[in-house]
Amino acid sequence: MNYINEAKKILAKMTLTEKIGQMNLVDSSIEKEEELLKLASEGKIGAYLTYERDTSSTQAHKKLIEASLNSGVGVPILFGRDVIHGHWTMFPIGLGMAASFNAEMVEKAYKIVAKEASDNGIYWTFTPMMDIARDPRWGRIAEGFGEDTYLSSRLAEASVWGLQGRNREDLGNSDRILSCPKHFIGYGACEGGRDANTVEISRNTLLNIYFPPFVAAIKAGAGSIMSGYHDLNGEPVSASKYLLETLIKKVCGLDGFIVSDAGTTNHLTNYRFAADRKDASGIAANSGIDMDMMSSCFVENLEALVKEGKVSEERIDDAVLRILAIKLRLNLWNRPISSLTSASYKISPEVYETAVDAARQAAVLLVNKDSVLPLSKDIRKLYVTGPFTDAVKELFGTWVIDGIVDGVDSISDALKKKLPDTDIKFNTSRFTDEVLNNSEHSDYVLFLGGESPLRSGERNSIAHLNLPDGQEEQIISFSNLGKKVILVIVAGRPLNLTRVLPYVSSILYVFHPGTGGGEAIARILTGEVEPGGRLPVTFPRSEGQIPLYYNSIQQRKARACQLKYIDITEKPLFNFGYGLTYTSFKLSNIRIQSNSIKIGESAKASILVTNTGEKSGEAVLQCYIQDCVASLLRPAIELKGFKRVQIPYGESVTVEFVLGNAELGFYNQEIDWIIEPGKFKVFIGLDCENTIETEFNLVIN
Ligand code: BGC
Fold it and tell me: I want to staple 111 with a disulfide (CB 3.0 to 4.6 A). Which of 162, 238, 374, 513 is the partner?
């Protein structure tokens, strides 16, 4: 269907008031029901969101849709909700999904997310969040895919495909929903890691680090984009014609619509960028915002602004056509409102298994001294404690509205089932002295620590990255008693593990793993499966090193005496891409198909990976490049490929990466994608430092 042509037919019948109504996104609650029904019946609501559970079953939802269909030309309201990393079944938070380095898995997970949300009457979700983040103090680092542009781009694309389907028409199917990649752009670079703070990013970094995930998401078919709360390089992003009209609509070719973040239009007055709400409405609409989220500025002011000639009717028509075309693509007129609720929905064994596998692939084994993991069968007694001992909902992470808790195993529940013959003592006492005293039960302490979901996510930034108060002391005390401490950390960000490192035998870092977390962690601890995650962010040793990320422009070794600190090493605690397995791998025979590649052709690089351990295992191969001489400063190394391969023990596998225009080029200052001839180094390895290298020349035809 030509959605724009169809949209034009509807637009031709609409009044100016109805058109502006489409540009209004309201938040709904039971208290506001009467007021919203009135607005809907006047055609003044284009979309709404609510934070209440089981909305499709409430009368309010049905009534709102009906009211919109009975108003004027009858355009149905679009119901959106923050279904961020799961609806009824929770998958790992974004950072955990990223640790999987597995785009197929992410696509599969988001397909389930879309189906569950759609079954609950939700047709639009404000995900994926793709803000590159180099500062773990920022609470919202939990929601995104970490610090790397290439990884974020592949996972952004996979999320969009999972939610919307790979073909444009798929979005109209009843099991697909509209995605809304966010927050355009640079939100993750907020000063001091303080949420929604000012951002300053060079044009080079903006275009080559922060922009590509949005390009990938839009190319994958994303039908909407959300702008951010912050200001960037001197402008509020939600009022920047350059960012919204030029970068998203012109350069990326978004044919869907841009929604502002909540209240950003009104916030233009707090920014002292607009004199009042009316002025703010004109600025936002003229900058390219098509739908105003939760400030009511557009419905209150746009009509007058059009009459005064301050906003053109063409701009309104452009915005409304974009919204209508997406509603048509979503088949919104024909979507039945389901009566499924969290109470009547049962997570199927297949969906549960996908959630468990996702959680397994999100779990990163950081330390495993003397191979203490997997737990030896000879351990007859185990002592389990820490704040996550009986946690279920807390495993889900930030942004959980509908996640089902009933019937979901905690880590302890799952462990008990796996180790029926082990004498496990669980201790959830609030008294740390009591917890310590009872540890005489075993020489092995499994400490299930980390941070509550309330300590990460929106508005939850922290200045100190240590484990929450008391946990480090408890861990150190166990070690001082001679116990072997097996530490599992559930968290929404990289924490500073420097202090506890000398006192623990192992660290399994699982982020907030979701519904499958308890089972996946128990399987990993007992060796039924291996930990599958690799770090999607660099772990600093100290907050003083922040920002610390692997793909810096400057190379440590090139300026060893300058880039150092005199009081601490400048090296991270754990590298980007790092993660142990229950086996070991050796890399050899790196090859490049030809030393001289013509621009436009692809370089093929391969490596031999041998499983040198005693178990079969999964290697996550990572391919990085360096553009040796370039007309704009480029990162010293940057990820350009990753592959997860299962290798039986004793066997070897050749893994190949293809590097073409998409991998070898970059944006110049004029936003052209350019590929420059010259030498490229290729590094393939198991993390960003543990690589072997080769090189080739890119030559002009
Ligand atoms: C957040 C967005 C979210 C929106 C709607 C805002 O506060 O920044 O990420 O989608 O609220 O809930």
Answer: 162
Query: Residue 195: inside a domain, yes or no?
Result: no
* Average pLDDT of every residue of the chain: 96
Show which of 516, 545, 574 is a domain's final residue. Answer: 545
The string of pLDDT tens digits covering residues 202-234 is 999 999 999 999 999 999 999 999 999 999 999
**88 domain-assigned:** no
What are the residue ranges in the chain where pLDDT is below 50? none
**663: domain CATH number?**
2.60.40.10
Domain that holds residue 653: 585-699
Is ligand 1 within 6 A of the CB of residue 109? no
Exposure of 232 by Cβ count < 10 A (0-12 exposed, 13-18 middle, 19+ buried)? buried
Q: How many CA atoms lie within 13 A of 200 on its CB side?
A: 3
d(CA 414, CA 522): 6
Write out pLDDT tens, residues 330-372.
999 998 777 778 888 999 999 999 999 999 999 999 999 999 9
Asked if the structure places residue 540 within a domain, the reply is: yes
C-alpha angle 671-672-673 in degrees, rounded to nearest 5: 115
Instruction: Identify the residue whose C-alpha is closest to ligand 1 atom 12.
Output: 82
- Which of the listed residues 545, 566, 599 is the one where a domain comes to its end? 545
Q: What spacing in Å lies between the alpha carbon of 161 and ligand 1's midpoint?
A: 21
* 479, part of any domain: yes
Ligand 1: nearest atom to the Cα of 84: 10
What is the total count of domains within the chain?
2
The tokens describing 580, both together, are 């142990």
For 426, list phi and psi in degrees, rounded to 5. Answer: -100, 140
Which CATH number does the domain housing residue 355 bear?
3.40.50.1700
CA of 660 to the centre of ligand 1 (A): 36
Separation of CA 538 and ligand 1 centre (Å): 26
- Ligand 1 contact via 182 beta carbon (within 6 Å): yes
Express each pLDDT in 103-154 by its tens digit.
Answer: 999 999 999 999 999 998 899 999 999 999 999 999 999 999 999 999 999 9
pTM above 0.70, yes or no: yes
- DSSP secondary structure letters along 437-453: HGGGG-SEEEEEEE--G
Half-sphere exposure of residue 25, counting CA atoms within 13 Å on the CB side?
A: 28
Tell me how far the alpha carbon of residue 227 lies from the centroid of ligand 1, in angstroms. 10
Is ligand 1 within 6 A of the CB of residue 262? yes
Q: How far is the CA of 468 from the centre of ligand 1 (A)?
A: 26
